[in-house]
Amino acid sequence: MNFNYSEKTISLRKKLTAFFEENILPIEEEVSAFNYNPDNRWKRWPGMEDLKIKAKDAGLWNLFLPQNYGELSPGLTNLEYAPLAEIMGRVLWSSEVFNCNAPDTGNMEVLAKYGSPDQQKMWLTPLMNGDIRSAFLMTEPQVASSDATNIETSITRDGDDYIINGRKWWSSGGMDPHCKIAIVMGKTDPNAPRHQQQSMILVPMDTPGVKIIRPLSVFGFYDSPEGHAEIVLENVRVPKENLILGEGRGFEIAQGRLGPGRIHHCMRLIGMAQRSLELMSQRASERIAFGKTFKDFSSIRQEIAQSRCEIEQARLLTLSAADKMDKEGNKTSKDLIAMIKIVAPNMALNVIDRAMQIHGGKGVGPDTPLAHFFVAARMLRLADGPDEVHMYQLGKSVINTYAKNKI
Amino acid sequence: MNFNYSEKTISLRKKLTAFFEENILPIEEEVSAFNYNPDNRWKRWPGMEDLKIKAKDAGLWNLFLPQNYGELSPGLTNLEYAPLAEIMGRVLWSSEVFNCNAPDTGNMEVLAKYGSPDQQKMWLTPLMNGDIRSAFLMTEPQVASSDATNIETSITRDGDDYIINGRKWWSSGGMDPHCKIAIVMGKTDPNAPRHQQQSMILVPMDTPGVKIIRPLSVFGFYDSPEGHAEIVLENVRVPKENLILGEGRGFEIAQGRLGPGRIHHCMRLIGMAQRSLELMSQRASERIAFGKTFKDFSSIRQEIAQSRCEIEQARLLTLSAADKMDKEGNKTSKDLIAMIKIVAPNMALNVIDRAMQIHGGKGVGPDTPLAHFFVAARMLRLADGPDEVHMYQLGKSVINTYAKNKI
Amino acid sequence: MNFNYSEKTISLRKKLTAFFEENILPIEEEVSAFNYNPDNRWKRWPGMEDLKIKAKDAGLWNLFLPQNYGELSPGLTNLEYAPLAEIMGRVLWSSEVFNCNAPDTGNMEVLAKYGSPDQQKMWLTPLMNGDIRSAFLMTEPQVASSDATNIETSITRDGDDYIINGRKWWSSGGMDPHCKIAIVMGKTDPNAPRHQQQSMILVPMDTPGVKIIRPLSVFGFYDSPEGHAEIVLENVRVPKENLILGEGRGFEIAQGRLGPGRIHHCMRLIGMAQRSLELMSQRASERIAFGKTFKDFSSIRQEIAQSRCEIEQARLLTLSAADKMDKEGNKTSKDLIAMIKIVAPNMALNVIDRAMQIHGGKGVGPDTPLAHFFVAARMLRLADGPDEVHMYQLGKSVINTYAKNKI
Amino acid sequence: MNFNYSEKTISLRKKLTAFFEENILPIEEEVSAFNYNPDNRWKRWPGMEDLKIKAKDAGLWNLFLPQNYGELSPGLTNLEYAPLAEIMGRVLWSSEVFNCNAPDTGNMEVLAKYGSPDQQKMWLTPLMNGDIRSAFLMTEPQVASSDATNIETSITRDGDDYIINGRKWWSSGGMDPHCKIAIVMGKTDPNAPRHQQQSMILVPMDTPGVKIIRPLSVFGFYDSPEGHAEIVLENVRVPKENLILGEGRGFEIAQGRLGPGRIHHCMRLIGMAQRSLELMSQRASERIAFGKTFKDFSSIRQEIAQSRCEIEQARLLTLSAADKMDKEGNKTSKDLIAMIKIVAPNMALNVIDRAMQIHGGKGVGPDTPLAHFFVAARMLRLADGPDEVHMYQLGKSVINTYAKNKI
């Protein structure tokens, strides 16, 4: 475990921080206000494409992708990327500026790792260029989708095509007008062994039968322009070449997709928590009640101290998971990945909640990023499987480890 | 402490439950969908007035008001009203149907207790009839308003008028097209002793100088049609008769207003939590993952058992506060009122959060009332003063009690 | 739910409080010091018998027993007894003074409810007189005894006798020189239906084959003179008349025994917590650090405020369970009894722990009752079944209730 | 932050683990039983000196001391020592075997850093040889000693001597028959500036006027043979050369002493927690209730998963503090040191408590190390200042940091 920043990271952090100060923070409120305005729902903030070009020009592009894809990505390790993702977490809409936003990142990884050359050319290239966006259609309303064997969408071979039927929801990004392609998880063979029933297939969003039913709100937020879509797939027909990796490989791809995505989410959560800590520290230094500045109340100091402790621990844990993934691969690191998935969202919720409370009414309203941070973090206790599923598996693994080595 | 239901309560509970089953639950989703639709923002659901007539006809009207106002209210005690408020808490928008919605209830109490006959005729009567709605302008963005001595809005005598200047926010109900009157808290004399600087004054919403700046979102919710308004008062001139009770009496009125309002909020929170418990129990009995129905996971049973324990304790505490208020008055009951104000929102947040988690993505989305419950409960950790203020005062009171009686 | 004190309770509370002030508190430290001194281990404090006579003379005797046994008990309801048990909880060794100490109370109830006239004459009378003490041999080291069907001790009929073999531990009171009789739970028929395998039988402590292996410490405490014994039963032979109620009735007796015992434990826990709150309030009013008296630190006020809230809620819940037991019986009240069993020990641990912390080193040492309170409360998260077992059953019951009544 | 083990650490860990397996674990219960037996109170387990020789021969001696003292210590960095201290934490009495036990470690550091050559020859050498033990007399019963400026013991110059008067308690190690020397904190000049009033002075335990009043129990444990002593210093006269560093330097020495000591304590706490996790995993894999092995209850898996997460985070945080101390010194690292002081004991208490609960009655009794671990960890929430003091200072520091750098 060597968490010292590499030269590359040091240089990119400096650049990224400067970019934030120059190009992101000054317009933070303007972009948020645009996105929150119901009149703009599912419209993209007009300045986004220019900002993306600036970021690309600054070499702050596709930072997430561990492989080097020529000039399109710097090929950072997870450990190198982690502190950069933390910075992006400080402003919710900023990841897209650097082409580092979910679910595109995960989808790009899937295509980079498992896609055929044709699939890569067709979809990976424009995604890496930031020309289009994508969705990942996994969760279904009718079943507990965190147990992926429950998933019911059918992918049925018909001549040279597959026909897809099912209902998906919480398809993040699905409302974005730039969203052109979806990766869909479904069953090609319900009679195969439990972990070989599922496959993943590429479905262009404009394929007939793809019906966006409605956007889902999270608490009251719609997260425009990406949104979270409920989508019905009704006799959706795509060529057989759209299948990724092969029939029955869906579970395997899902596993491969999740590790890095979790690191990214967790680092962004740490960024949210860190910024919340800073905001509450500033509030504490200014606000007065009952004749004392907030910072002189011991209870407020305790909350800030606790938050500092929790953030730093989660940060170290995430770095250690990133490091292990880099060195030993995702599979060996699965316990550590489960650990950060359990720890980071709950840590962030605790910290953000304290920050909201110290801000009073302002904290739950639109004038700070806190309420939206909270909702984003709350959702991440569910996305990619609720805490409980990860604890269920981690607990089993820990018990097995120590039950064998009696002391 | 005798918490047995009175005959009156038993009969009203039966009626209210029947009313819910017949008139509220069947249209719950329709009304919510109307209110959430941005196209309807600040419009009232068209069926509301008819529903109110039905409720009035059923004798389910103004249940909250402890005094008897002829046929307009049944004159329940706090203890009698509490279980009815709990039922109303089960559906967020339902209180208005029975003319029992905040902040109107508190405003009516202020007018009933402290209003002059003219003030009562002008504003209390139409409020009790449900013909208009009202706002309470207390909190200010610039100061920690939970320490009411901080409030800066000025109320200056000028001949036979008062002139009001200041900025208020979180004025709940202020966006409602039916909102016709506001009670404004401000300083008539900044040089008076600390608790005699403040006064309350009636300001019709259409008075020149009353400017609604914007609606505030809570997390992402706008709570249409009531909303939470930011309002600037700029040289707002009202006749001197609009002052309530007298100059320097604002603090005294605020104190008198808060007790019952807290009981109402707390009972509604218990209703939200109770419904969340029921929803999660039903979910647990149906959903399957990893080969087991949720109800057979010990961790899920624990969450449901914990929730049941927490709800019942908060319910008993609230009943005991209501009972004490009825028998000994608000002032003697201040510690107990502080206790439920601390306990109920946090209890509700815990229970609702568990219910959301058990519902997975559905729990944070628009298809259950859970996310909105959560936000409502979260706000009530701040409304009428954050937890911390109540703990600060309660802690002091407890220490003083026991420091004197050494053991 | 009418929690008002009855005349009887008011009068007894007054008497009991006076007795504490006169006879218990002045010697509290002396008795504790005697009991903690290893030289006195398993010796009874010499003044105890005199104190018991005083209490008996004052009519403060066998207050716990819901039936009236002539002059030996006042026949209080659970609701009437609860506030008296709370007072006794304030001094750990005081219950015995009033013949209200576990496990004798539970054993007396078993004999009173289920004992034959001969069994009652032989054992109930001297127990009610306070002439002897008793033990309850239930828990076994080899199995999870909270699932009573696991219990392995055998009770085998042999002519006119039963022969008992097994190993029991955590037999509280088993080290006391006055302990003369044990009620033993064991299997008379391992092949009977699951809940009819167990029986209870009376075993005089001086029966050959009853071997006290060792006293168990709880954390570092030995709880002399009662202690917690590990006991081996080796071919212990008693006459068949010692069986209580009949073969296979053990489970039924256990159920009947537990309800009131839990109320008693919980009320004592509330007494411990209440006293801890008072001690920490006094400490907070006196101690100074960093230029401030503890009571002026908002964090300390918060802890005291929280404690007050938690105690009062647990108190109300326990009273409501007592009330329901009185009116509807133990069986109908089982959910409420489970709830207080879950709530009270954890509440007490939280409160006591905060009190210890505010006391600094003094709080974990021998100069306050806090550390011993903590250990007693910690043990009560396990005694009569760990929290988890009660949550497991309560959770199931709640789910079943609400799953049926869909909303 | 490079937490990879150095060659030295890897080799020492291997040796230390082997030593544990060969020499510590096989006699763990024997030594504990000896120490718990009241007949042996304040006697040292007879095999200890032989074990110490073995450890010294194995090169496992004075591992804690960051400086190299010739053959007496290997001169490890804090980061190198941390994983070794973790192993020692697994058996409470084992640190002494390696001459790594508090408070001797801290005292040796003080003498090594600040002692005069004569003081070092007289006391450091025998301490490093393990020939004697020592005490540290800081805490006083009458004042909140965590605010060191409160300390009242007087150290008054009288000719060539100092005369010391005061009352100290919680002097760990003070009961040990090998304890020969104490470092005493007291005031040489009550009128000096606040942080220059205090000095530290060496007081041989056999100096006239040093009166051991009593041993203090922690919960019920006496921690024989070291114990925690209450000591009165009555006109204790020592030569002026016994003063360490100079008058008014006490605070400075205290600061220098605390950093490494906290790392040691925290690493041992992590060892306790880790072992508790292993014990509970084993228990979970074996015990059966309600027809299921504990490991198949989701709630038990959750507790184990949570524990794993908490331990790993605290471990990383402690390593990062050790690393920073090595590289940047104690002063710059004070926030991180405060953080581990806050985090580690609470983490350990949570984990140990869960482990106790899973063990049922066995968990709070004498048959596992858990109850003693719990008490040791509980005490460490108070030793060297309660959590609250560290949060008070850390909170202030964090607020100051971020209040300046506005975002």
TrEMBL record, chains A, B, C, D:
A GO biological process held by the record: fatty acid beta-oxidation using acyl-CoA dehydrogenase
One Pfam family here: Acyl-CoA_dh_M
Domain Acyl-CoA dehydrogenase/oxidase N-terminal: 7-131
Record field: transmembrane: none
Names of required cofactors: FAD
GO cellular component: cytoplasm
Family under the similarity heading: Belongs to the acyl-CoA dehydrogenase family.
Subunit structure: Homodimer.
Entry protein name: Acyl-CoA dehydrogenase family protein
